[in-house]
Amino acid sequence: MEFITESHYFRVMPFLLEGLVWTLLITFVGLILGFILGAIFGFARLSKSKLIYGIATVYVEVVRGTPILAQILFIYFGLSDLTGINIDKITASIIAIAVNAGAYIAEIVRGAVYSIDKGQEEAGRSIGLTRNQTMRYIIWPQAFRRMIPPLGNQFVISLKDTSLFSVIAVGELLYMGQQYYGMTFQAFQALTMVCVMYLVITVPTAVYLRRVERRLDV
User: Alpha-carbon distance 147 to 70, whole Å?
Assistant: First the structure.
């Protein structure tokens, strides 16, 4: 067995940097779409309409109650089989992150809005604002501030979830590390650098979120 040399830690970097680009791209685009879904279904979970509330609840419970790996395979293989349309693996990955994160963000939105004191809504109505205006100008800005820490946590979770996309050969960070040690048989070095690159992103993010949480006093 070849002795562990420092050079392998550097040789793997071009592979991992390419994978990191795809990891971040899938995470950011998926979370942007996931936030839109989460906001829609989060407010739907606050609706007084039983139909709207029911649809939103089914979405949230189904997604949160199934593993994301099963969701990835369902989107990439299942939907392609059902529709006869081949879904690009990057597109499937973004959809999987968006759908999965959207369910959790929906609960973040619902919880943040519920956490605002009821007196805030009454104050808005007392100065002549409609229910929608009260939500837009009074409730939502306060709720959004309280959503920042859990949204940051969701970013970290979704970032790590992208490692599961290696099952459909998406060239994300872990997959590229696997490709490198498949060619060189240097698994220790490759996987060590994969873990280091994840930590370089997740640890500063976690530290920053703790600071934000203290500032917001949430």
Answer: 28
Domain of 201 in residue numbering reads as 1-216
**Conformational region of residue 28, where left means phi above 0, alpha means psi within -120 to 50, and beta covers everything else:** alpha
Q: Is 217 left (phi over 0), alpha (psi -120 to 50) or beta?
A: left
The domain tally of the chain equals 1
Cα 124 to Cα 135: distance, rounded to the nearest angstrom:
9
pTM score, two decimals? 0.87
**C-alpha R_g of the chain:** 21
CATH number at residue 115: 1.10.3720.10
pLDDT tens for residues 79-110? 988 888 889 999 999 999 999 999 999 999 99
CA–CA separation, 45 vs 65, rounded Å? 17
Q: 35-72, pLDDT tens digit by residue?
A: 999 999 999 999 889 999 999 999 999 999 999 999 99
Q: Which of 188, 162, 168 is nearest to 21 (CA)?
A: 162
